[in-house]
């Protein structure tokens, strides 16, 4: 299963993906905090962070 997260920006009319900023952050953000914020299973968050 693949999830994509995107946000719209008034400065750039195209879609800006924020998945790398959230799930690719170094050091990683606590997967349980992200799971709660995005209503995902912690296993899914850990998979996205890998």
UniProtKB/TrEMBL annotation:
Keywords: Signal. SUPFAM superfamilies: RmlC-like cupins. The keyword Signal applies. Residues 3-45 form the Cupin type-1 domain. Signal peptide: none annotated. This is Cupin type-1 domain-containing protein.
